[in-house]
């Protein structure tokens, strides 16, 4: 465009609104392409032996077995007789069979964010977990 006294001259084309929908679709496509180049695809199968990150056990990895997949990125894993719901980012496949044996000796927590397998057993209260005696 021509500039007049440091300003841009307006034309009839300036009165047209920008095509926002087209711009959004273009940006979303760029984001998806960028994401897909770096994203890792993880999928676990029912009955598969895995290691679960346990903050309650001091941030260690404890062995478990995949029981259910309630969502695309979450799994229910059985650990020491209890059911834990975890995001895929907190679950990994054991590197070797020794991982299950080595990590199995680690302390497995008895309370916390577990789903009780017994309908008569009440879940532990948050205050009891926060302030141990």
Tell me the fraction of residues in β-strands, as a range: 25-35%
In DSSP terms (H or I, runs of 4 or more residues), the helix count works out at 3
- Stretches where pLDDT is under 50 for at least 5 consecutive residues are 103-121, 125-133
Number of strands: 8
Helix content: 10-25%
| N- and C-termini, Cα separation | 75 Å
| Order of the strands making up the biggest sheet | 7-3-4-5-6-8
Q: What's the CATH C level of the largest domain?
A: Mainly Beta
Total domain units = 2
Task: Describe what this molecule looks like in 3D.
- The chain has about 130 residues and is an alpha+beta fold.
- It has two domains: about 5-40; about 50-130, Roll (SH3 type barrels), CATH 2.30.30.
- It has three helices and eight strands.
- The protein has helices spanning about 20-40, 95-105, 125-130; strands spanning about 5, 5-10, 50-55, 60-70, 75-80, 80-85, 90, 115.
- The strands form two sheets. The chain has a six-stranded antiparallel sheet.
- Strand 4 and strand 5 form a beta hairpin.
